[in-house]
Amino acid sequence: MGVTLLIFGFLVLTVADQWSELRNKGVRFDLIWLLPAFLVLPLFYIFGAIGWELIVRFLGYRLRPVRAQVAWGQPLLARYVPGSVLFIFARVLLAERAGIPRRITLASIVYELALGTIASFAVGLYFLIDHPDLQGEPWRWAVLAILPLSIAMLHPRIFGPLSTWTLAKFGREPLPRTMPMPAVMAMLGFYAVMWILIGIGVFFVARSVHPFPLSEIAEVGAAQSLANVAAVMSLVAPAGLGVRDAAFAWAVKGAGVSFGVGALIAIAVRAVLTIIEILYVGGVTLIGRREKWVGPQELHHIHEIEEAEEAGLTTVSGRE
Length: 320
Fold this sequence. Notes:
The chain has 13 helices and no strands. It is mainly α and 320 residues long.
């Protein structure tokens, strides 16, 4: 946690130290551009819950769309707790109350993280290779091999045995099913569209700070995708705090701005996304209070089903 705050603090100090220079480089606050950002960016979170619910369906279970929004959205702010364990635990419990066994939810989170990261990497791949700081570095082309290798890891013939081995280490039985490869490719496309969507929203936030031409929308949007990959790789940074922002400040240099301007935009993006997350979590929390969740008897039945599956007595193909 201390390292992430140190990185974020460095970005703030960079902006403060270069403020007069940044003003000379065209930094002008035009808050009217935040209006379309607040219209586009919430869709990223709504579609995020939809994507997770689709993954759960591919694993053989069903969630009502409203419950999926609640189970996915309520724990979002727990990502700011170091290690993200609370975030995962909260979604597992909420999904269990909606009738989804714990190991299915854990598997869906693994799929979600992998698919989202691969998709964000794919969206930003060209702009990573084309980044001005990497020109003349022949090794940058090696990143092209990461994409197919990452996708191959999600193939049922690889993910299935790997998940079985991992579950066995914790004394658990294999998953009832894994995602078929056509479903994996379809969800990669879904998450790629999501990252394009958030890229458009981030461009509006960036435009409120610096007068980017519309032709730079792809470069600015790709910077957010690459920042997500850096945040996932950091593992320990809560919600990618500091790491995501520093990576964005570096990546957005591909749009022709300095690191200082990029740092200011990264801080603005972090502030806007945090506000939207709070509003979204508040909204799904209110919705969740109206929902009738699984009671103690039904919850006990879910545990019995899991135990029966592990004993090889039954296989659950789906629940409503």
